[in-house]
Every structure is written in C-alpha cells, then in structure tokens.
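FAQ
Q: What does a multi-component entry look like?
A: The components come first, one per line:
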Amino acid sequence: MADRVLNVTDLTKRFGGFVALDSVNLHLDKGERLGLIGPNGSGKTTMINCISGSLFNDEGTVEFEGRDITSLPAHKRAHMGIARSFQIPKPFKSMTVLENLCIPLEFAAWDRADHRHISEQAMEILETIKFAERAHENSGSLTQVDMRKLELARALAAKPTLLVSDEAMAGLSSSEVDEILEILLVLNEQGVAVIMIEHIMRAVMRYSERIVVLDAGKKIADGSPDEVMHNPEVERAYLGE
Amino acid sequence: MKIDKFWLSVLVILIAGFAFTKLADNEFYFFTTYVVLQGLIMAVAWNILGGFTGYVNFGSAGFFAVGVYTTVALNKAFGLPLPVLLLAAGVICGLLGLAAGYLTLRLKGVYFAIATLATALVLETIVNNWKFVGGAAGTYVLQPKGSFIFDNYIELLFMLMLVLAVAATAISRYLSSSRIGQGLAAIRDDEVAAECMGVPTLRLKLISTTAMGALMGIAGAPFPFFVTFVDPVSAFALVIAVNAIAMPMIGGTAVWYGPVIGALLLGAIQETATVTISSELNLLIVGVMLVLFITLAPKGIVGLIQDYKKKKGANNG
Amino acid sequence: MITLELFLNAVVAGLMLGGFYAAVALGLSITFGQLDIVNIAHPTFVILGSFVAYILNQNFGIDPVLIGVVFMPVFYLIGTTLYRVYYVSFERTGQESLSGLAFFFGLMFIIEVVLILTFGVDYRLVNAAYIGKTLHIGFLDMPFRMLVPAIAATIMTGAVVLYMTKTFMGKAIMAVSQDRLALQLMGADPIKVKRIALGIAIATASLAGALLIIIQPVEPSVGRLYIGRIFAIVVLGGMGSISGTFVAAILIGVVESFIATFYGPSWAPAVGFGILLLTLAIRPQGIFGRA
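Then the predicted structure of the entire assembly, as tokens:
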C-alpha cells in the first residue's frame, strides 16, 4: 500500500438528474501507466476532472498518496503533485513557451522546487522532451502537435507524481502520435504515474500496463491490455449489442 | 540598480509637485492636474483587474461614487479628518471589491462585466433615494478650514492626489512584477489551466478586485472637497467609467505603465479640449479614441512602440 | 391602502410597459442570445430611433409609429455595416469577448455624445392625435401612449418569431451560435447569417425608439437606464429564446409598475438591475433557459 499513488473509492458524480459517474473505484501505484478508455460520454473526462479537482464529486473519496483530497481545490492538488493536460490545449496565449512553463514552476511546484533560476529549470524540461528550440515562440501561434507538446511540458513543469493526460494525441498523424508517446515514456521513466485517456487504441495498447474501461459511468473492466480486449462486456460496450 | 530608478523618479516627481505648489499661483493649474491625476488613479486601478487579470469592470463610476459618498456621509455625520475619510473609503470600497471578487466565481467574462454595470446603477438608485446625503438633488460640502503647509486647500488636494497617484502606480507595479502578477496573467489567459497549474485563482482574483476597489474608493474620497457640491449625476458620471477603461486601453493594458501613459495623454487632451473647445467635444474625443484604439491598436501605445522597435530591430539585424 | 382597483390598474400598466420593453429587448435577444455579440450599445440605437422619430414628427407631422417602421431598412443597413467592422476587428482575430464589449461601450458613448452635441440635454417629445387620450374600460385606465406602443411591440415580436421559425434564414440565425453542425448541413455561411441577424436586431431599435418617445419624453442619456433592464430581460428570458424574452419583459414591466405604484417611481430603475444581479448570481441561464 505504501506505493499507492491514487485511490478513488465509490466515486459518484451527477449533473442534475444525469449520473455521469456511478460508484467508480480506481487505484494507481507509483510509476504505473494506466489507460482509461470508454465510448464517448462514458464519463472519462468527468473522472479526470474529479481527480484533478476541476469538479467536485458528489459521493465517494479521492485519496492521493494516502491523504484524503476529496474536498481540496484544484490548485492545492496541483501543489501536492497532480498535474493534468487538456484535451483542447489551453496555453497561456500572451506568454512564450518558456514563460508557460514558469507558471507551474512558480506555483504548483513551488513547495518542492528550487526557487532560483526558474527559467533555467523550464529550459531543462524543454530539453528533456526535445522542445527547446520553440522556447521563445509565442505559445498562441504553435501548431497542433506543438501545442500538445507544450501541454505535456507544462504538466511536467509542475513536477508531478501523477499526470493525467486527456487525449493528448487526438487528431495527430501517426508519426506525431509516436512523438507524444515518446514524451509520455520519458515522463514515466522519471517516476511519474500516468493516467492516459485516449481513443487511439494502438497508442493505449502500446503504452498502458493496465487498462480501465468505463461505460455509461460504470467501470466495466480493469486489467492488463490483453485481458481487457478479450472481455466480452468491453466488446459489447464498443460494438453495441 | 533597476529598482532605484523607479523610486528615484517617484522622489523627483513628489519634490517637483511640492515645488509646483510653492511656485505656481494660478489655481487653475491645480484644478486641471487634480482631474488628470484622479483619472490616472482610476485607470491604474481598473487595469489591475481589467488589464492584468482579464475581468472587465464597467462599474468603475460606482466604486468611485461609493468613495465620494463615504466622505459625504462621514463628514456630515462626524466631521472626520481627511486621512480618516480616505481610509474609510478605501476600506468600504475594498470590501465592495472583495464582494465583486466572489462574484467572479459564478460570473465569467461578459456576464461579470454586465454585473458590474448593473451594480453601479443599483448603487446610483440607492444614492438617489438616500436623503441624508442629499438624494438626487445633491448636497454642498464645505472645505475644511486649515490647509496644512499649503497656501490654500486646492494645493493640498493636488499634493494629496499626486501622492495617491504615485502610490497607486507603485502598487500596480508591484503586483505586475511579482509572482502575483504572473499568476494574474495566467488567470487572464486561461483561468481553468491556471488553477490546474497550481495558481490559487480565487485568492489572486480577490487580491486583484480588492486592490482595484480600494484604490477607486480612495480616488473618490477627496472629490467632495474638490467640487464642494456633489450629486449622483457627477459622482456616477459615465465619463468616469469610460475614462477608466479608455486610458488603459489607449496606453496598453499588459504592463503597469500602460495606464499611466494613457491617463497622462488622454487627460492632457481632455483638459486642453475642455478649455479650448467644449466639454462635450472632449467626451467625443474619448469615445472615438477608445473605439479607434480597440479596433486598430488593441495593445495600445505600448504595443505600438514595441511593434515599432521589433520592426526596427528586424531591419537592422 | 391597496385597493383592487389600484392593484388591477398596476397590473394593466405593467403589462403595457412590459410589452414595450419586449420591443427594446428583442434586438438584444438576437445579438446577445443568438450571436454572442454583447451589444451594450443597443439601447443607444433605440434612442437614435427616438430622435429620428422626433425630427420627422416635429418637421412633417408624420406618425411616430410609421416613422419607426419606415426607417427599419436604414437601421438594418447600420446593423450590417456594424457587423462588418465587428467581424474584421474582433471576431476574426478571436478578440470578440472583452475587446468587443469595450468597443460597443465606446460606441454607446460616441452616439450619446453626438446626440447631446446635436440636440442638447433637453427632453424631446412627439405629437400624435392619440397621445394624451385614454381608453377607459370599467375602472381600468389605458392611456393610448402606453397602449399603442404595447400593441406595436407585440406585433413586431410576433413578426420576428414568425421569421425565425418559418424562413430559412431565420432558422439559420437560431442555429448560428448553438449548432454549428446544423448550420453546415443547411449550407449557410455563418458570417452572412450573423450580418443579417445584426441588421435585423438594429432594425428593431428603429421602431422601439419611436415607441419609446411616444411613451415618454427622451433625452440622449435615457438609454443607459435600459441597459440593465434589457440585459435582465434577455438573461431572465433564457438567452435568445424570443418568446422567453417576451414573457420576461412582461414580468419586469409588471414588477416595475408595482414598485412605482406602491413605493414611488424613483425606485423603479433599480428593479431591472436588481433582478439582473439576482438572476446572474443564482441562475445565470435564466428562468426559461435550458438547465
């Protein structure tokens, strides 16, 4: 249990009368790579919003490194080491790429990081993911794939122990998908546990050690990629009855 | 030695201002500069929320007027000295700003802007019906007797406004160049992303709205003694709200000195136009300049200069 | 003493007032509700309509309602031109929300000051045979200066509802901000749709302005009082639902009429803003809006 990073118990979230998440359990160990999949509207994004603190769940608890964080706001969770990237990139448009990375370094990672030489630390992070040549470009005018890279670099700058990556590869070409996967692997090698939400099956299968499947707000499968793919319930959810 | 340059200028400005009160003997100059400095404080205050944080306040005149009427009411009820009135106006308007800050939890963007406008008009209706401070008819306010080390009261008010303007600018400069300023910029660009990157968005927004409210209230507090007759029409004047937006927009909203440039420029133009042409026409100038800058130069004068420098640099290099 | 007579008269006065408010709010309901364009200057265009009616009525004795209708095409052109400027300056560059808002704020200020420079700050009014006469039904008093605007406003609202639901362009306007996909399937160009919609919105201000100056004397800054009121109506009405806007307008009219009757008219202006603030704070999607 000491290596348990995230423990989600009986998580329920309703929007009005609609039950988006129905008593879902989820756990993640240190440095684990988890794929979270499911059809559209199955509750994946709601799930990560509840984990990162963008939404508060109605019932159940979220524990991070053994501490109950259910009622903590998102910025406090970020300080503790939960970082996320957004499906639709949300760069700080008035800033350069480098300045974008300074924000999490100055806020989320403030308690854990060296307070001096913030921009040098930001540069190091860009170098580890081979993105340094874009450092001084305006973040608002990046290409799609570079925008995704910035999302991940910025999440990395928060010095997280858990990264939640929300469809970082949607709409990218297959070589671009490989580039993003490469970054996610580098991250993981540094000891970061990753929850990856993805529609691109090839990427999920290659990357994940374990896969959780959501359907209509319920968890219907949890196991190794092989097990999950041969689970009849998963087939039914994806192919219809 | 970068910090010293700013504080050195502050010292020079304050000494020059004091010397001005001893050298100039035409009261007209003090009336004119008072109005410009009042506009400067309002513009700097507006920009803390509007420029740094990205929340547009259309109700600046409301904050200003609450400062004005705090003075009117407390002066009438207890006859308090000016520094206490300033403090009271700052505290009350700061609290009003704090409330506006909590409003941002529910209202983003356009809705927040409309709510501020609505708040100002509700406040105006309340003052219109508040008999103690004169209601819609207005009230006369007597200038206090003593004028400290100055020859007359207008010189004192001018010097007070100069000190307040410098203080407001210093606060705005501190906010923009500190960690708080970076957090505010992140909120302005994307509030959800900022929160997820560890920026305590609510706390920073509350700091921003409270500072804005307090500064606007303080800008309004000496106003009754300046005009000696206050009514809701003058305290809630639309031109106050428009100037508070137009000055930063024209100067440039992204940096602390943008609203200062805008306020000095627009203030000087307005005061000249009022004297030489008519006061209505100077309102038209503000409106036209605001619209022209928003459509053609959204980054203001500061942005124009930066673009020019960049172009020059590119040509040379 | 609240008598039944006073009470019912307040209701009827409120219904007529609300009917007129619908005419003013209609344009904003289209721009703000459908196009996501925060035309804070809309009431100022209404005042512009009032002054057009004033000039032609005073010089040629033409009926103000007729003037309002005849000038709709001119206002339509103002609206479409305005959209071109707005599109090029803000929408195309993604600056629309806050810069666009400040743009309309400045525009409002310019129109108001130009009107003040031209006409001064005196109250202006129009003449028509029916103004000053009152229709009595039992103990109910219905002044024609209220009744005529209420009826004209209801007809205009009805016409706009018909246009929006029955014509191709109307349906495209209703889809333009909520349902991009439907718009694509319809094969409509969103820029053209928005241009026409803003044209229609400003055109309604022509008649609304003429109706305003029938109800009360007008001076250039009267428009500001309507900002809170009509935003309250549009937000309360559920953002862009035209029938919702109409119901909300009636509601605000009745509440204001009650406040004016029982507490005094100087409090009435706060009603709209107060309701707006409450609505925004409690239920931003309006009482008739989707959850």
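Q: Is there any commentary attached?
A: Sometimes. For this entry: Chain A has one domain: 4-239.
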